[in-house]
């Protein structure tokens, strides 16, 4: 089965397509780094939309999501953005964990898997 790597770099690929499954790398906020979890989540979900489109799919085909937040007390703020973005009836299996991220300016990172 063919494997396609999108935006492949020396450390990671932005997305990997294997058969009819699309795996996105974790996405953090570039433009809103250092701002609120709400703003970062909005940017991240918009970026995810773009990466899914490049891979030939969209959020209606989400299978799984893993969300990392640096402060569990912001869980409800992140969910307020997520709940507006995700499509009713197409919600993925999901886990949210509190974790340190690659830089203190990041408060949330989201990784998804989708079908094509």
SSE layout and pairings?
Elements: E1 3-8, E2 13-18, E3 21-24, H1 37-54, E4 62-69, H2 75-85, E5 93-98, E6 108-115
Parallel strand pairs: 4-5
Antiparallel strand pairs: 1-2, 2-3, 3-6, 4-6
Helix pairs in contact: 1-2
Defining traits:
single chain; globular; 60s Ribosomal Protein L30, Chain: A; six-stranded mixed sheet; alpha+beta; 116 residues; 2 helices; 25% helix
Describe it.
The protein is an alpha+beta fold. The protein is built from two helices and six strands. Strands 1-2-3-6-4-5 form a six-stranded mixed sheet, with helices on one face. Helix 1 runs parallel beside helix 2. The two termini are 15 Å apart.
Q: What integer value in Å does the Rg equal?
A: 14 Å
> Class, according to the CATH hierarchy?
Alpha Beta
What characteristic shape results from the CA principal axes? globular
Total domains: 1
Sequence of secondary-structure elements: EEEHEHEE
* Name of the CATH homologous superfamily: RutC-like
Report the β-strand fraction as a percent range. Answer: 25-35%
Architecture in CATH? 2-Layer Sandwich
Please identify the structural class as seen in this structure.
alpha+beta
Distance between the termini: 15 Å
CATH topology: 60s Ribosomal Protein L30, Chain: A
Question: The biggest beta sheet, please?
Answer: 6 strands, mixed
State the helicity in percent bands. 25-40%
Order of strands across the biggest sheet?
A: 1-2-3-6-4-5
Residue ranges: pLDDT <50 for 5 or more in a row? none
**Mean residue pLDDT:** 97
How many β-strand runs?
A: 6
Count every helix, treating DSSP H or I runs of 4 or more residues as helices.
2
